[in-house]
Amino acid sequence: MWDSTSPPEDLDLVGFRYGMAASVRVLPSVSLVGEVTGRSTITDETISVPFGAPGRIPLGGAVEVPATLPRSDVVAGSVGIKARLLPHCVGYVSVIFPLVKDGVTAPVTPIGGVELMF
What we know:
Elements: E1 15-27, E2 30-41, E3 45-51, E4 63-69, E5 73-86, E6 89-98, E7 109-116
């Protein structure tokens, strides 16, 4: 475990998140919104995977086989519309889609919601 005052000992555990967004007002109460968000890891990660038949542990304990997980970049984009519905109420609909083939994601994920300000 490391804190923000010292560098991490193991770069396999380090990743970073990033994002960028733009909003364009098309009508006095309606905006188009576009976003790009992502998470990237710094290096490949080496893990140990238990190996053997289920329920059978060989003499000397379970055998663990090393495996390498390659560094990953999971990047998604989204586009949507945000509109003022009432003086203190905003509604939005958007779709999120992957920009890279890394990670397990749906081709398109619809989202929507209402924000109330008080």
